[in-house]
Amino acid sequence: xxxxxxxxxxxxxxxxxxxxxxxxxxxxxxxxxxxxxxxxxxxxxxxxxxxxxxxxxxxxxxxxxxxxxxxxxxxxxxxxxxxxxxxxxxxxxxxxxxxxxxxxxxxxxxxxxxxxxxxxxxxxxxxxxxxxxxxxxxxxxxxxxxxxxxxxxxxxxxxxxxxxxxxxxxxxxxxxxxxxxxxxxxxxxxxxxxxxxxxxxxxxxxxxxxxxxxxxxxxxxxxxxxxxxxxxxxxxxxxxxxxxxxxxxxxxxxxxxxxxxxxxxxxxxxxxxxxxxxxxxxxxxxxxxxxxxxxxxxxxxxxxxxxxxxxxxxxxxxxxxxxxxxxxxxxxxxxxxxxxxxxxxxxxxxxxxxxxxxxxxxxxxxxxxxxxxxxxxxxxxxxxxxxxxxxxxxxxxxxxxxxxxxxxxxxxxxxxxxxxxxxxxxxxxxxxxxxxxxxxxxxxxxxxxxxxxxxxxxxxxxxxxxxxxxxxxxxxxxxxxxxxxxxxxxxxxxxxxxxxxxxxxxxxxxxxxxxxxxxxxxxxxxxxxxxxxxxxxxxxxxxxxxxxxxxxxxxxxxxxxxxxxxxxxxxxxxxxxxxxxxxxxxxxxxxxxxxxxxxxxxxxxxxxxxxxxxxxxxxxxxxxxxxxxxxxxxxxxxxxxxxxxxxxxxxxxxxxxxxxxxxxxxxxxxxxxxxxxxxxxxxxxxxxxxxxxxxxxxxxxxxxxxxxxxxxxxxxxxxxxxxxxxxxxxxxxxxxxxxxxxxxxxxxxxxxxxxxxxxxxxxxxxxxxxxxxxxxxxxxxxxxxxxxxxxxxxxxxxxxxxxxxxxxxxxxxxxxxxxxxxxxxxxxxxxxxxxxxxxxxxxxxxxxxxxxxxxxxxxxxxxxxxxxxxxxxxxxxxxxxxxxxxxxxxxxxxxxxxxxxxxxxxxxxxxxxxxxxxxxxxxxxxxxxxxxxxxxxxxxxxxxxxxxxxxxxxxxxxxxxxxxxxxxxxxxxxxxxxxxxxxxxxxxxxxxxxxxxxxxxxxxxxxxxxxxxxxxxxxxx
Length: 1021
Fold this sequence. Notes:
With about 1000 residues, the chain is an alpha+beta fold. The chain has 18 helices and 52 strands. It has a 9-stranded antiparallel sheet with strand order 31-32-33-34-43-40-39-36-37. A 6-stranded antiparallel sheet has the order 3-2-5-10-7-8. A 6-stranded antiparallel sheet has the order 30-29-35-42-41-38, with no helix packed on it. Helix 6 (about 270-290) packs across helix 7 (about 300-310). The longest helix has 28 residues, at about 530-555. The radius of gyration is 31 Å and the shape is elongated.
């Protein structure tokens, strides 16, 4: 038999495109259109319908960038359609572009009463019509003219990401607004052909099944009349029915298809547009549920549900009703799908607390899985945090983007820094936006790494990123592949149903220990430095506000600001979304973020001031002068942890000229600063050891070309290392402060279009050299690093993560080591050899690289570099331009706890209050490695005291945590403040003291019961 299969496939494809597709609608009729353009920001339906609408015609331009136009569409269904088979629909083409769904124009359709019907989007342009008694049609369309910022992924600079520079000319042209009669038989035929063609293309050429499908499709083309597709569609379907009825192989891979729409809470659109995207997507989903009783949809992010409750209450109630049926499934349990690299430990915990609290309160549902398909790598601390919040399962997809190494597992047990494990799935389909095509299903089966041990994977399907969600075409594909020879079987179900079956199927999966480092998007630790600084400052102000407010509530009976703190936490949690905090959004998003951080800081300062006042600030009685409030869990300058009192008397700092440079010395450090403003030596006075290798000074600014191969704001590519310039030349190096208690040297530099002013300060009581770097940054596509060569033989470096730290090798023995050339650390990194170590701490920097070389003298130089600033051009062509203030400290200490303490000190400055009273700590730990991270009042408003703590050294610890107030009982809880069934760390209670035994990095939450209330109460009960 001659092989003419290529020609046959081409014939089938042409017949489907040129004959079947145009016949989907039996007939259509134009409707009457009137329009009103909103002058500025969107308005609600009730306001829009009262405006003066003017006639509008198909073919006319509409919509300035980021604008909104309301279309009022009226007309009647043609009488000639009566008695014809088919479904009457409104079909709208807003002028859709060729790019992705969710990255361009979209519309939301309302009936005259203001009830949302469904959305209009690319690839989903139809709306069911509720026809009046005389066949009348009357709907309103809220059309959003969102510009396509860059879904072609060319990464070219564009002004449209900033409303101020986006322009005002219309960017769309209305193509179609018709009432149309859908031919359901032709539509079903199209889905039959699409499903079978997709399957056929994935089958091996030598399989009889492939030939059977090809010849059946050819027979359809032969049998149907190309001039009467509608009249012959049933005959075509009858030919394909036997081929579609062939059941799947018994050994076929099992796919659980989860309806989904990954909606970025901000990215190439502002937050305000995400609110509308959610309404559009969720209305699409609800419409599908009305038509398909087997459809199940999962949506994460409590924030997005909260927006629906606030802005679209009627839609929210419909969601609530479907959630009660188990079909609209709240998933993930987090406030947003946050970044997990940069949020602090308490913030990541609150993502889960706030998210679960919302879902339990509004739906009576506690999600058991964490759902983060698109975040840019996953902290090694995350398994413990998730488990402590009651999660059992974790899903991600992003590690399939690795540039160098392929993850060896798709289903595995992920182990965190404390040994906690969580059952994890990484869908082998390699997308969270599947359409259930034959290609995707075959890929899931082909790539699945656990063959022979397990045989089930999850496929999230639906248009995502910009929303849209599943379509009726995707559900048709799911039904046809439920059991289809040659294809994996497909079952539409919830994430929990998948995880429970997968866990039963694979009770002893392999273990992946440590971080899920994404070998990609490494620039996200640095881009948009002001956003990152705002996050860091907000996290620490929230700590202070809760600590002092709880102390004031317990000690003076002051009101605890539950509502304001909850609102502020939610604001910060939203800004930790994985395209906001990483710095990968349009300018508009980051402008709003920076405004919000300023507001958050002002409100938290007000709360702190109120609490401090309630604790006796401003009262001369019992005060001998200024009092320092120390919110750190470590003593600072003689002020005990989490208390207020006078600071130690200042010690002296000596200053000597050394040629054109200076030598600063206190009781701990002797620092030599040369004529170029570089740190020539950093000597531990007690031992005489110098941390700086001879001839390799520290505080060295380095400027690199930063032109990633693709994803501009996201990526730092390794080739940046080949184009660096050392910024050694200084315009001036001068002594600016020479007081007994401190000495400061100011260094001024210029390069390119930018300027740097650094102030190097040694305090008399200080244990580290502090460096304030103020940059007037006007470079483009450049990377600024601050380098510290250290005379330390370290084969690994410790980097702070949430509630602990990770060790990463400084060598590149393997491809995994080599790919980890830029890493994330929180407040500090620490490099050490036995008996000697150096801490490099920061107040707003996350990106680092740490390497080592061997010197000519045989010694080892460990190079620690902070990534201070970038200047990518996409999606924000002016990212990071302007003034930045960054603080760094360098100190000597062999124990990693020295680094922990320095990180807190640098980020939680002493708060000096005149005329205040001393304040004893509300809670104290007698073990230096049992670190108290959070002190607050209980979420259930019982007045109980909640204390979150962790083991910080990375070793077992025994100690006592004592409350400085009357206590009726102490229980260990989970993150949601529910009593643990079996305490893991609490080994005894003695009055107000909890006796603890912690494993390395263990995270513990304690509830100190007050007022005789029940220790079993919690926010979820």
